[in-house]
C-alpha cells in the first residue's frame, strides 16, 4: 500500500520531466503506473487468501494516533477501479492534450489526485481520510479549471471547490463528534480515530446522544461530494474541465468518494430509521431528478454529467435500504457505472477531438469513420441501458429487487426506478446510436483527422470489460464483489451473479419490466427532439433552482463583504481601535461579570498609597483624553506610564519598573519630537462621536479593571511555580527562573516581543533620519 502511494507521488513529480524529454512516450510510461501498482496490490491480496492488509506508523505517539492504511474488499474494489480507469485516462489524456503546453502540469495534477484518491480509500484513520478527502477537492479544483484562461472554467472550478469544501468542513465536524463518541465509549484517542476500531462498536455509537449530530455532519460532507440534490449543481459545471478529467473524476473516483465514505461507515452509522429515511429520500430524488434533467440536453457531455448524478442517487438509495442484497446491488452497480461512464466520457472526447462538436442534434454517421470508438460506445451503452449480456443488466436487476423490497414505499421506489431506467435507455441510444449510425439532416462538422490509438484504446477496453464480466460474472463476484459487499455490511454478503435465474414469478416480473422499460425508452429516444425543443415545464421554478441560488448567494456574499470591508477598513485609526476594543469587551465582559458573583471573591485590603497611585494614573489618562493639543496629551499619558512603573516597583517588580520607566520616558520624548512636526489637526469628531468614544472607553476600561481585579483575587496554585523552579536548573541550566522562563520556556513569545521592539526601533530611526534631512 505504501508502495502504491509513493509510486504515484513520485510519478507526479517526475511527469513534467518526462513530458519535457520524452513527450511522445510519456503517456504510455505514465499510463502504466496506476494499473500496474493497483494490480500488484490486488495480487498480494489474492495471494494472501483475501486477508485484510494493514500498515501502520506512529503519527502522534503521545496520543496513540497512527498513520494507518488498511485494504479490505471495499478498499480494493476502489483501488482496482481507480487504477484501471486512471491508467487509461492518463494514456488518453496524453494524446488528447498532446499539443497543450501545460501537459506536464496536467500529469502532475492527475497523479497528485490519484495519490489522494488511493490514500482516501486505503486510510484507516479518520484524520488521514479527511486530509486525502480535501486533497481530492483541491486537485480537482485545478483540474476542472485547467483552462484557467477561460472565465467559465474558473467559475466552474470555484463552484466545485466552494461546494465540496463546505461539505468538507461539515465532514471535519462530523469526524470530531464521532471521535468524541468513541472517547465516551471508553476508547482512547488513537482508537477513537481508527476506523477499523470504530466499526467494532457500532451498536454503542448509534446509542450515543451525539449520534444524530455525527450523522448529519457526515451526510452533509458525503452529499456535497457525491452531488446529491440540492448540492448537485457543481457537477454539470465541472464539465468545463478537459473531457478525460471528467472520465476520471466523475466515473469511479471523486464523485464516488461520498458513496465510499458512507459504505465504509455503514456498520457505525447505518441501519437506524434516520439513516434509512434520509438516504432513501435523497437518493430517490437525485436518481429520478438527474435522469429527467438529462433528457432535455443536447451536449453529450452534459447528458453524461446528469446521468452521473442519477447513478449516484441510485447508489445512495441502495445504501439507505441497507440490507445485504441492497449492499450487494450497490457494489455491482458501482462497478457497472464506473466502467460504462468512463468509457462513454472517453467516447465523447474522441468525437469532440475528431469533429469539434458534442451536439448530438448535429452529429450523425460517424460510425464508419470511427469504427473502434463506435463499437466502444455501443458496448458501453449496453451497460447504461442495463441490457444483457453486459454487467449492467445484472446491476440494474439487483438494484430493482432491492428497491422493491422496501416496506411501505417499495412500489414508489420501483416506479422511480422504472422512470429512471426509461430515461437511461433513451439516453444510451442517443449517445451510442445517433452520433455514429443515424443520419443527421444538419451539415456535419469538418473532419479533423483520425484520433490516435491511445485515445481509442481506453473506451474500448472499459466497454469490453463491462461485457466480459457480464459473460463470466464469477470472476468478479468470487473475488472483489463478495469481499466488497461484506466489508461494507460488516457481515458476510455473498454475491452470485447470473444472467438467467430460471423461470419464476420474480424472473417473469423482471423480464416484463425490462421489456416495458426498453420499449418506452426506445420511443422516448425517437421523441427526444420534442423534449429539446419545448420549454421546460419547470421554467417558473428556474429562479429557485440550486444553481441560481448558489449564484445569488455567492454574489450576495461578495457584495456584503465589499460593503463590510468599506465600513470597517475606512482608513481611520479611531474606527479600528474602537471596533477591536469593543469586540474584546463584548466577548470578555459577560464572563467577568459572572465571575464576580462567585463565592469567595473579594477586592481585599486597599491601602491609601495604592489609591493615590491609581488617582495619578487616572488623572493622566483623563488629562490626555481632554487635552486640546497633542503634545499636552502625550505628556499627560506619560503620567500614566510613570505611575505604572511605580506600581511595578511597589510589588517587587523592580526590573519591570526600570524597563517601564525607560520605555515610557523614551516614548514621550519621541512622541513630542514627532508631534511638533505634524500639521495641526483640523478635523474634530462630532459631539455624538465623542459620546460614542466615551462609551467605548468606559466599557473597555471596566472590562480591563474587572479582569485585573479577578486575576489578583484568584486562587493561584503553586503547582506551575514549583514545576518551573524544579525544571530551571536541570532543563535550562539556569538559576534565575525569570530569565529561564523568558529565554527558554517562553522563547517564542520573547522572540516575538524582540521582533516587535526591533521593528519599532527601526521605525523610530527612520522617522528621526527623515527629520534630520528636513532640518538640514
Question: What features would you describe in this structure?
Answer:
- A hairpin with a 4-residue loop joins strand 1 and strand 2.
- With 776 residues, the protein is an all-alpha fold.
- Helix 10 runs antiparallel to helix 13 and helix 19 packs across helix 22.
- The protein is elongated and about 105 Å long.
- The protein is 74% helix and 2% strand.
- The model has no long low-confidence stretch (mean pLDDT 84).
- It has 34 helices and two strands.
- Strands 1-2 form a two-stranded antiparallel ribbon.
Rounded to the nearest angstrom, the radius of gyration is 34 Å
Structural class: mainly alpha
Q: Name the beta content range.
A: under 5%
Strand order of the largest sheet: 1-2
Number of strands: 2
Outline: elongated
Mean pLDDT: 84
Helix content: over 70%
